[in-house]
């Protein structure tokens, strides 16, 4: 009989802002791996609203009850970060065919350059249309109803979004 090999997963993203869909992927990812690193990265193609420190703070606050979750920031290639934390599995959420097309390309690159597998978790119906970009636009254009925003993002994130736009 062989000993159980601990499996560490990495859920990378910008999390700008953290959504209810992200939290769902984190919780479901814990059913697949023994411990999960939520890796806050930098995407040069996106203009961030929250600083990396603010995103880490929000993630830590909202995952504090999940014992097997660790929050870390990183720079550079995701594959290099994954290897540096002694993992060989990336967990990604897929909302639609656009996500799938992009994520398949990334998964194939990570497999080719780092030998890293990617596990895709399909978004639950209620999160399939949730996009951090759209959420920021909705608040920027005047949505300040915290209860309605909390359908998309956790309540503390909704409060921070409204504060960022000075409403």
Description of the structure:
By secondary structure, this protein is an alpha/beta fold. The chain has a single domain (8-129), classed as 3-Layer(aba) Sandwich (Rossmann fold). The protein is 42% helix and 17% strand. The protein has seven helices and five strands, in the order βαβαβαβαβααα. A five-stranded parallel beta sheet has the order 3-2-1-4-5, sandwiched between helices. The longest helix has 18 residues, at 97-114. It is globular. The model has no long low-confidence stretch (mean pLDDT 92).
Summarize the structure.
The chain is of the alpha/beta class. It is built from 7 helices and 5 strands, in the order E-H-E-H-E-H-E-H-E-H-H-H.
Keywords:
167 residues, alpha/beta, Rossmann fold, 17% strand, globular
Mean pLDDT over the residues = 92
CATH architecture: 3-Layer(aba) Sandwich
What CATH first level would be assigned?
Alpha Beta
**Helix-strand sequence:** EHEHEHEHEHHH
What's the total count of β strands? 5
The H-level CATH homologous superfamily, spelled out, is HUPs
Which secondary-structure class do the elements indicate? alpha/beta
Q: What is the CA-CA span between the terminal residues?
A: 61 Å
Estimate the global geometry from the Cα principal axes.
Answer: globular
Biggest sheet architecture? 5 strands, parallel
- pLDDT < 50 stretches: none
CATH topology: Rossmann fold
Number of domains: 1
Strand content: 15-25%
Round the Cα radius of gyration to an integer and report it.
16 Å
Helix content: 40-55%
Major β-sheet strand ordering: 3-2-1-4-5
**Total DSSP helices:** 7
